[in-house]
Amino acid sequence: MSVGAGSAVVEIIWNVNPFRAEKFEAAWREPAEAALDYGATAWALLHCKDDPLQFIQLAAFPDKVAFERYWQSEEIATARAEASGLYQVPILPVWHELVGGALLSAAGSTTS
Predict the structure, then answer these.
(1) Total structural domains in the chain?
(2) Spatial CB neighbours of 30, under 8 Å, sequence gap ≥ 6
């Protein structure tokens, strides 16, 4: 995952309907990864261990326009429609500016 300081990181909290977590994960993994096709430099889809009905989608975009291109694309709009009934609305993207952090690679070295 490559995210530089100053990157715009969007967080989307998905509240999944009861007994739909596995279906949501299967339905949303590919659309979450598709952020890379729209200019994102990193993406993640997290399933909360403490609240099994919550997923968090993260993606680092160069700017909000790139995210809007992704979010409003026909591909992602269709994916949201196909997954409707699996999650609760509204879905409100929240923006963060990355000010620091590092990732530890499998070899034990850090990347920033």
Answers:
(1) 1
(2) 79
Find residue 103's DSSP bridge partners. 111
Q: What are the beta bridge partners of residue 106?
A: none
Is 106 inside any structural domain? Answer: no
DSSP state of 28: H
pTM for this entry: 0.85
Q: Give the domain extent around 59.
A: 8-99
User: What is the reported pLDDT for 110?
Assistant: 47
Q: What is the DSSP letter of 49?
A: S
- Within-domain flag for 41: yes
17-62 pLDDT tens trace: 999 999 999 999 999 999 999 999 999 999 999 999 999 999 999 9
CATH number, position 84? 3.30.70.100
d(CA 101, CA 79): 31
